[in-house]
């Protein structure tokens, strides 16, 4: 069956449904292509002309069932406009630091309009979201999924004993301090540490009149050896993948990356956030 794009995105609810679907497709594609769950944990759908794998609950794969529950918890926070960043991270099962030490991390960032579709997002093209059409959203969505496919297929494999976890970071000014979505608990530790030198990949963004979804990936630098930085260029209007690593020889670059996603001394952490949830 097909993942159908709405003919128009006139309401916040229509936009929310699309963002939820896109998040599900992106997480499913990443986990499928990185070999985190077996084939039986996925169904096949079509998104326009792109064949995608969609994660489903599988009684023979408790991990996929658990991730589906985490996604539902993330949806709850999305609907309430609380969640700012959803971090899905792979960690090695035999690592003594357990969930704190990761080998690859997928950052899904969310922005919302709080006063209807007239509020501007600060995007690269400075385009007012009131002028974002459904065609713009559809084009950006398909491009994002295609970029995920190309990137995931070109990164070096993950370790065999990799496990998945998820954390949610919030807009603290609107999120109740005791809020925890279903499937999550208060995080004991807010940061994530990379054992190896991390590389920071800006994959893409999808705007709607009411939301903005951005995807960024952090992985170990050695895993990028076989990736041609131009491979994600899809047609003349698309931008190639941007690769940003923290260089201690370049303070300006380091500062720029720190402003977006702190990656310093191999650590990924958001020190400004009080309320952080981690998967149970």
TrEMBL record:
<keyword id="KW-0896">Oogenesis</keyword>
<dbReference type="GO" id="GO:0051321">
    <property type="term" value="P:meiotic cell cycle"/>
</dbReference>
<dbReference type="GO" id="GO:0005694">
    <property type="term" value="C:chromosome"/>
</dbReference>
<dbReference type="GO" id="GO:0005634">
    <property type="term" value="C:nucleus"/>
</dbReference>
<dbReference type="GO" id="GO:0007283">
    <property type="term" value="P:spermatogenesis"/>
</dbReference>
<dbReference type="Pfam" id="PF02301">
    <property type="entry name" value="HORMA"/>
</dbReference>
<dbReference type="InterPro" id="IPR036570">
    <property type="entry name" value="HORMA_dom_sf"/>
</dbReference>
<dbReference type="InterPro" id="IPR003511">
    <property type="entry name" value="HORMA_dom"/>
</dbReference>
<keyword id="KW-0744">Spermatogenesis</keyword>
<comment type="subunit">
    <text>Interacts with HORMAD2. Interacts with IHO1.</text>
</comment>
<feature type="region of interest" description="Disordered">
    <location>
        <begin position="238"/>
        <end position="280"/>
    </location>
</feature>
<keyword id="KW-0221">Differentiation</keyword>
<keyword id="KW-0158">Chromosome</keyword>
<feature type="domain" description="HORMA">
    <location>
        <begin position="13"/>
        <end position="217"/>
    </location>
</feature>
<dbReference type="GO" id="GO:0048477">
    <property type="term" value="P:oogenesis"/>
</dbReference>
<keyword id="KW-0539">Nucleus</keyword>
<protein>
    <recommendedName>
        <fullName>HORMA domain-containing protein 1</fullName>
    </recommendedName>
</protein>
<comment type="function">
    <text>Plays a key role in meiotic progression. Regulates 3 different functions during meiosis: ensures that sufficient numbers of processed DNA double-strand breaks (DSBs) are available for successful homology search by increasing the steady-state numbers of single-stranded DSB ends. Promotes synaptonemal-complex formation independently of its role in homology search.</text>
</comment>
<feature type="compositionally biased region" description="Acidic residues">
    <location>
        <begin position="250"/>
        <end position="268"/>
    </location>
</feature>
<dbReference type="InterPro" id="IPR051294">
    <property type="entry name" value="HORMA_MeioticProgression"/>
</dbReference>
<keyword id="KW-0597">Phosphoprotein</keyword>
<keyword id="KW-0469">Meiosis</keyword>
């Amino acid at each position: 069956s097909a993942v159908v794009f709405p003919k128009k995105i006139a309401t916040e609810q229509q936009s929310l449904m699309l963002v939820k679907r896109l998040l599900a497709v992106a997480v499913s594609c990443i986990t499928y292509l990185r070999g985190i769950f077996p084939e039986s944990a996925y169904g096949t759908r079509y998104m326009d002309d792109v064949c995608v794998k969609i994660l489903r609950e599988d009684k023979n794969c408790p991990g996929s069932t658990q991730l589906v529950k985490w996604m539902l918890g993330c949806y709850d926070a999305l609907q309430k406009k609380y969640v700012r960043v959803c971090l899905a991270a792979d960690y090695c099962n035999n690592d003594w630091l357990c969930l704190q030490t990761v080998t690859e991390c997928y950052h899904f960032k969310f922005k919302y309009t709080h006063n209807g579709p007239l509020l501007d997002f600060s995007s690269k093209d400075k385009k007012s979201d009131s002028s974002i059409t459904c065609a713009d959203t559809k084009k950006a969505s398909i491009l994002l999924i295609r970029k995920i496919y190309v990137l995931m297929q070109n990164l070096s494999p993950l370790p065999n004993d990799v496990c998945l976890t998820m954390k949610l970071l919030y807009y603290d000014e609107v999120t109740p301090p005791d809020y925890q979505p279903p499937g999550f608990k208060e995080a004991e530790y807010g940061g994530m540490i990379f054992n190896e030198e991390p590389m920071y990949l800006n994959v893409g963004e999808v705007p709607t009149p009411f939301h903005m979804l951005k995807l960024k990936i952090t992985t170990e630098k050695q895993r990028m050896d076989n990736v041609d930085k131009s491979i994600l260029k899809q047609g003349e209007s698309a931008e190639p993948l941007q690769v940003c690593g923290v260089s201690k020889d370049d303070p300006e670059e380091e500062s720029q990356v720190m402003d977006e996603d702190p990656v310093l001394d191999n650590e990924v952490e958001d020190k400004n956030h009080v309320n952080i949830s981690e998967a149970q």
